[in-house]
Batch of 2 targets.
Target 1
Amino acid sequence: MIEKVTQALHEAVGAPKETIRVWIQEVPSTNWGIAGQTAKDLGR
C-alpha cells in the first residue's frame, strides 16, 4: 500500500518519491462513527 500511495502521489503531483511520506494510522472502531453511532456498534 505504501508503495502504491507513493507512486500515485508521484504521478499526480510530480513530487519526487524521496520527499513523499506515507503515514498509516489505525483508528479503533469506538473512536469514529456514522449517523450518530460508533462504528463498533454498527458492526464495522
Target 2
Amino acid sequence: MNILIVEDDARVAEALSAYLRQAGYTTHRAADGASGIEAVGQDTEAVILDLGLPDMDGLDVCRRIRGVSSVPIIIATARSNVESRIKGLHAGADDFVVKPYDVRELIARIEAVTRRARSAAPSPDESSNVELDGLYIDFANRLVLAEGAPVELTPKEFDILAVLARYPGVVTPRDRLIREVWGTDWTGFSRSLEVHVASIRRKLNRPSLIATVRGVGYRLTAG
C-alpha cells in the first residue's frame, strides 16, 4: 500500500515512515501543503495529513485533496479539541488521530479507512447509466451531465448523487447516505451531508431535483 505523509517535521515523518515501511507499506513524504496536494496521484492509497503546515492550514489541504480525489485521508495532529476534529471531518477527512499516538492504532485506522474505500468502489451492477429529466449519470466514469453540459462534482458530491440516483423517487434516509458515502454510522456527518447536497443543487442549477424529506432524508425527483 502506498501512503503519502504530509508532515513538515522531518524527524516525525522519518520515524513514521520507518515504522510503516517495517509494517510493509510504501511511503513518500511531502513537507508542505502545496507539495502534498501535488503529490496525490492514482497510486496514492492513503494520506496521513498534519494540520500545522508551514505554507497553508492542513484543513485547506484536506479540502483541496478531497476536491480532486476520494483517497482516504487521516488527519494526525496535536490539535486535540473536539472542534478541530469536527472541522477536519467536515473538510473531507476520513479519520482523525491526536499526537502523540500509538503507531499501531494509526495502522489499524489506515486499514479501516482503506477497507471502507475498497468496499465503496462501484460494483459491476453499478456500471450502467441513469438518465432523469435532463440529468445523465455515468457511474463507471463518474461523469455527470446536465442538459448535455458536464457538471464538476467533488468525489463526495458524486457519491451522494449516485446513491440517490440508484433509487429515483424513493427517499434515501440520511443515515444510509452517511453510511454509504462516508463509511460510518456517526451522525456527526449530518451537517456535512447538508452542505454537500446544497452544493450539488447549486452546481446542477436544479434546486428541486433533490427533495428534502424533513426528518428522514433526500429523494431524487424529476422537475
